[in-house]
Structure to design on (328 residues):
């Protein structure tokens, strides 16, 4: 009986402490960890959130860059941070979910070590091709691939990223196989397609809108559920006869798993409110990002759905085992 009473008392104390932290948050500068380089999509989202929270709460919020290992170094730092609400972070599908299907061992567990705050944005990808191919749509593209198997290749900037998985799903649905060529970054990969060194590729829309409009590449399909405003003439992959081929290079916001629930709920409310401000929506829309700003529970369910969605593709193409040789 005494042990039970002690346990209940401790639980009450922890709950009370968490509620007090939530009411007083933030008490000092809040770090928002960005696991990719300055100027990337995660950096943009992190800075929009930081600016919005600073305006709302009157306390300093700063974005800190921690790059390496495809985003896992920075994401691991979020997981290891003190769970006092003064370190949160932004990251992408791989480090927050899909890497559990790509790696036998990770420096952290995305579900046991990271608490969801919100799914911030969706980012569609665009399938593009070299103008030399002279095809009008995705069906014509894959029909050409089938005519001459083994001749064509595709550019990659990240093994196991959303764009890679979308390409793999397209190959699976069309019954084709292309040679993957890995480049050290999206800029190099896109340049290779423009020059005709590589035939096709799939990249986040923010990287491709200008290139498609300038006629440097053919914009053949978008991986979103609906067309994007910046490229209204480019139909979705689903519209072109590839049902279920929908993929987003989404960005989520997370905190250390031991962050007290009342504090986590308070942070989530504020981050969601910051993302839903008209100014934030406008800035992110210009970067071809669609604000989602859902609840922690919805985000966590979505993360698990992403693993279930992409794991069969990863296994079919042995993506974790077949990292293609990098082009230098």
């Amino acid at each position: 009986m005494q042990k039970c009473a002690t346990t209940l008392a401790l639980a009450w104390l922890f709950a009370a402490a968490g509620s007090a932290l939530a009411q007083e948050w933030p008490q000092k500068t809040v770090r928002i960890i960005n696991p990719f380089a300055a100027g990337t999509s995660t950096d943009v989202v992190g800075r929009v959130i930081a600016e919005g929270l600073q305006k709302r709460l009157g306390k300093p919020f700063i974005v800190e860059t921690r790059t390496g290992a495809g985003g896992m170094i920075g994401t691991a730092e979020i997981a290891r941070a003190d769970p006092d609400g003064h370190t949160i972070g932004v990251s992408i599908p791989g480090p927050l979910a899909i890497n559990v299907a790509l790696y036998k061992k990770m420096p952290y567990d995305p579900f046991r070590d990271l608490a969801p705050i919100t799914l911030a944005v969706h980012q569609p990808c665009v399938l593009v091709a070299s103008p030399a191919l002279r095809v009008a749509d995705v069906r014509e593209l894959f029909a050409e691939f089938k005519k001459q198997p083994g001749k064509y290749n595709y550019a990659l900037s990240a093994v196991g990223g959303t764009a890679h998985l979308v390409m793999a799903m397209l190959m699976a649905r069309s019954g084709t196989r292309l040679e993957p060529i890995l480049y050290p970054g999206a800029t190099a990969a896109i340049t290779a397609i423009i020059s005709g060194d590589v035939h096709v590729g799939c990249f986040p829309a923010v990287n491709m809108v200008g290139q498609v409009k300038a006629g440097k590449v053919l914009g053949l399909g978008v991986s979103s559920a609906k067309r994007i405003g910046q490229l209204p003439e480019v139909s979705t992959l689903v519209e072109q006869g590839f049902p279920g081929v929908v993929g987003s290079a989404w960005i989520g916001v997370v905190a250390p798993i031991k962050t007290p629930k009342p504090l986590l709920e308070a942070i989530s409310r504020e981050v969601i409110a910051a993302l839903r401000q008209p100014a934030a929506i406008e800035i992110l829309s210009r970067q071809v990002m669609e604000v989602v700003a859902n609840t922690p529970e919805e985000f966590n369910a979505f993360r698990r759905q992403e693993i279930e969605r992409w794991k069969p593709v990863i296994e079919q193409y042995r993506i974790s085992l077949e990292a293609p040789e990098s082009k230098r």
